[in-house]
Design brief:
Blueprint lengths: L13 E7 L24 H21 L3 E7 L14 E4 L3 E4 L13 H10 L4 E4 L12 H4 E4 L4 E5 L6 H11 L2 E5 L16 E3 L3 E4 L7 H12 L4 E4 L2 H5 L6 E6 L5 E8 H6 L2 H7 L4 E5 L2 H4 L5 H4 L1 E2 L17 E3 L5 E2 L2 E2 L8
Parallel strand pairs: 1-2, 4-5, 5-16, 7-8, 10-11, 13-14
Antiparallel strand pairs: 1-15, 3-4, 6-7, 9-10, 12-13, 17-18
Length: 350
Amino acid sequence: MDYIPPVSAQAPNAVILIRAERFTPNPATAADNAFQRDVPSGQSDDATATKALAEMDALADALREVGVTVHVFADEDVTRPDSVFPNNWLSTHAGGYVAVYPMYASNRRHERRADVLEMLKSEYRVQTIVDYSGLEPDGVFLEGTGAMVLDHVSRVAYTARSHRADIAVLERFCTDFGYEPMAFDAVDSDGVPVYHTNVIACIGTDVAMIALSMIPDEVRREQVRERLAVTGRTIVELSEEQIREFAGNAVELCGRTPEGKRRYVMAMSARARRSLTPAQVAVIEESCEIVAVDIPTIELAGGSVRCMIAGVHLDHRPSAEGEPTAAVEAIDENPNTADGQELVDIIQPS
């Protein structure tokens, strides 16, 4: 009998992508994102948008090719330059839980979309939506699975402190969702804090890729190493040079072969893949296939493939008619709005 990998809580089999039709690097995020770059001189906004669209479509096609379910939402709003990165405002969790996050840059806050949440509630089993976006007026932020790299198996939230990762909100999230907070400082060789944890770390089922050398506190560095390895994961240590090539901005997903068997894949950019050594590739491929897509235009914004993907860690809702459904509980002291609509509410899904 052919070997079928077991189900992993770490690797979702469905993802959400935003097809941003007017993509451009966001000037409001450039100050604290050392990975962000300007558009090549002389390249028009139309050319940038066209190139980015082709890259987004290529990622969606590559994920579908390996059997991952891909939900794509179009975005024509020219005032949302970073909407291609939905993982900063949304995360989903086993047991029917969804989190909505407070965003650091004011021009990113209307990336939160009611239609995305409605899709989740209609197609998946969603019991509770916890919306932290009402904390924005207080100047505290936690940008989702950009700010946190979550170990869904051991229930640990690895978080590099930054303007975009407030530790008080992290602890509140961990209390609400049942994670252990593991916060640390991470800086580059110039002493600049890493803006998002997911550019320096990726946690898979059997392998973790991380730039431990960018954690200056030696004691904390070893604590992070030990915590990652406690389940038997192999740790692939990345250099700062590889991090600048987005090697840490990857995500493990669960797909299907044409025969319907489970397959685990590590999605990353072609640039990230090229930066890996043969030995590192061999370790990763012991547990999952590497799916690499070239996205140089989108990477100008300081994020790569992981940032583009909001994983769906929810059970699918059967489509059989007459199945009873449960109301969705919304936990939000200060409801946010998107395009004039209440972002989360208590409803009876259809």
